[in-house]
Amino acid sequence: MLRQNLDLLCSPLNGIGLISTDVFDTLLLRRLKSQRSRIMEAERRFARLLKQQGFPANAEELCRVRLLAEKFAYRALNVGGGGGEVRLLDIVARQLAILGLPPELLHRRIGLETDIEKTSLSANGRLAIALRQQRQAGIRIIAISDTCLQASQLCELIDHFHGPGLIDEIYSSADVGASKRSGQLFSAVLRAENISPSEMLHIGDDQIADQAVPRKLGIHTVHIPTSRIRRYVMRADGARSAALRTVRRRLALSRPAFCAANDRNSFGREVFGPIAAQFCLFIWLYATQAQAQGDYALAFCARGGIGIRQVFEALLARLQLPLEILRENILVSRLVAARTALETRNRAVLDELGREFAKSSFAQVAHAMGGGTYELPPEWDATFAPAHFFDMLTSPCGLQVLDDVVRQNHLFKRHLDTVFGPARRIILCDTGLYGSTQRLLAAGLPERHFETIQFARCNYKRLSEDHFPDVTGLVVEANLYNPLRIETVVLRYWHIIESLFEPAIPSVRHLREREDGTVSGNAGPIAHDVIDATAGNDLLSGVLDYIACVESGGQVMQQADVAWLRLKRAITNPSAFDMVALGVGARSIDFGRSESIHVLAQTDRTGLATRLKTTKSQLWREGAIARDFPHIKFALLPALEVAHIARGVSARLYR
Description:
By secondary structure, the chain is of the alpha/beta class. It has a five-stranded parallel β-sheet with strand order 5-4-1-6-7, with helices on both faces.
């Protein structure tokens, strides 16, 4: 098939006035070296350059930040629709900014990338011969590539292997801001070349971007596929490179030196400080890419988002990280979001209500959703059944509840309009886990595009994951705690992350109109320059103490590695001090209700079997074991850890 396709290109092409060729794996062939290996080699060269200029540098650290910058850039791009492209220029600029390196090094670093490519590619001589023949026959030859490299860099690579004069024009998705895979790059080329699709022939290796997409546009195609063996070998090389980096990182942390912490403030500084700062660096990487795509706003959700915003702004100021995207705190909660979905009669709200009010009555749900006091007939005292709730609300007695819901939704929409104006894309920033607010707002306000970035994403509710493509867990994306992935330890005791960032204010239940026409809520003033989330929160105060002294994002990454190990030990094998440092007391169950639940409920001290049984119902099981079984916890806690390992293995085998 490959030989036949190349022979076709050597024959006269009647009716074709333009030939476009893909660049990588088509005009330029990859040697058996993965992208991760190429990046690591470039970072080694960059580290040597930095040391020559007097900057402390570590190739592993450079590579890690570079890969994170790339990861979150593509995530933001894909969540936003994927129509644009990530530029290497932006990736490297963000890498330098996080590490506190001079921006003047940008083009030298990109030059190293090009140098590495010259050692990792080879010329497709047979294709070049065929293209030169067609060029001599009067057909215009262009190159089209989905890549983070700019056209000038592609030109340098093509000329290096094929010499000048082969390609008349180069179109890079990084320059045009559109990709082949979306079809928009082909459309831009057709306009720029002023040619019809039937007069264009495209050559490439990708079944979708180089075949299916251009064919739908009416463009002729020739497929030159990469061999399956080559793909497998390159994947194996990428896996080997990633594994080596992981091993080197773990060896460096084999004997971590934990800083002493003797109170909640110092624990917040030494442990949560690097972890929260790392989280905020990830927010910045995501937000800077979204900013490049335009029409975005960053919304920090009350309550947890308020504390996140305070840490985030402090880190931006400390490290002088630029960010121009509109960002504000907003009055929102799962209850507020559920009302919007209730008005549109979206079934997503029934899932949430069914889980939250499984043992409640219709009247209790009505009170929570409407926020008022209602005289309802006896049938509303029946146990809540989600399937009947829409019909109940449209009954004569339910209309008063629905009217209050609609009134609250009107105020919330005004609040969004006041804060974000016409911005259609809103990035919600919160702690996590399932992304209920995201799911419900997307269902209730389809005129805006909501996406969510949060500390962790986990389907602990076992409900639909249809909204997960728009929800990013910046630090953790997992449904189970995995002892081999340290960051997932927060899933064992999620309430500590929530309480870390939440200020001492109630969840948003009611919105009201002020005399000046603005919208306020029962949570009180939440503007960034008004509220202080550290009030009464020693852990968060410690985080800000850490931010005040941090020197670079590289320092944050290194110290976060150690901090995660310390947090894992505190959660899975807590000492007496850890129990005090991580204690959060009673937690409100919210959703329009005043009840609260204790993370560590008091248990009956008599009867070993009874105490062991009640441990299963505790929200922080390891903490309950350490408290209730101080003499045998050294046997129980390792056993619990083994159980989690077995659970994770079982989940992977039977998923």
